[in-house]
Prior knowledge:
Number of helices: 5
Number of strands: 0
Distance between the termini: 36 Å
Helix content: over 70%
Oligomer: single chain
CATH architecture: Up-down Bundle
Amino acid sequence: MARTRSPLLTASRKSWKKSKSSLPEGVELVTTYDRSQLINRSISTLREKLIEESIVVALVCLIFCGTFRSALVAIITLPIAILLSFLPMYWMGLTSNIMSLGGIAIAIGAMVDSAIIMVENAHKFLEHFERRKGATRRILNELKSSSLRRKASGAPLFALAGHYG
């Protein structure tokens, strides 16, 4: 058996070894399909892609925001928002599966887009010395319209039914 890094796989293998000793004589457990290597490769690939995506997001923020200080707002808040997204999942008893991680990956793009819009508009309004309250209201309206367009483009996914939905 291959060594695993997953605590769940390690625990299930220990349980499997314990249950082997309690089987009647002549009965044996045989592994027919071991998915542990697939799971380990998936975890490794996910880790690599998250690092790559973080670097690309940081570069995009630097390019579009113009200054390092402005980009730092998005670069710092995005990982915090992603980590905080796991709290409701934990409280609701949901696990991190391919669908939830895919949703988070899509949300990263949406959050980057919103963060860039917010920073760009904040700079624009600060240059014109507008009042904070009016500037914030105008920025929020632009963010709402941007989010609405993004949601409308994803609406056809809800029409999928059966195996795909």
